[in-house]
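Pilot study result, target chain (131 residues):
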Amino acid sequence: MTRLVNHDRSLEELERDRWPVPPVDATRLVATAHALRRRPIGDLTVEDMRLLIGQDIGLPHLLPLALKVLRGNPMAEGEMYEGDLLSALLTRHPTVWTESSSLGLELRMIVAGLTDLPAELQQQVDRFLTP
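Predicted structure:
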């Protein structure tokens, strides 16, 4: 099921869940995740999506956006390495993809056409494709 999402809204608005301000001694990751939840999802970069998806934050709203990016460039890169957005998707818990079977199917179609992947990314693809 595809649903239209207003890309001018933040995850906080879409989820109707405002997180408290992180504590002063919060890690950079925690502070960044909190700040990104307040940014309109249409303004999120590949790196922003990679970080949030890697923390299982906002998945119902971010997975479709990330898949859109991967359709255009399966090896889209945030700030870590080529294909890091794909890696973030491939390493989500399998229930994420069973609960969103159409998104899981789309990811399967994207990775089915990939060749010459770095070994670690290929292992992630293989684990994802193995039932």
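One observation from the pilot: Helices lie at 11-15, 28-37, 46-54, 59-72, 84-90, 94-99, 101-112, 119-129. A full batch analysis is planned for the follow-on phase.
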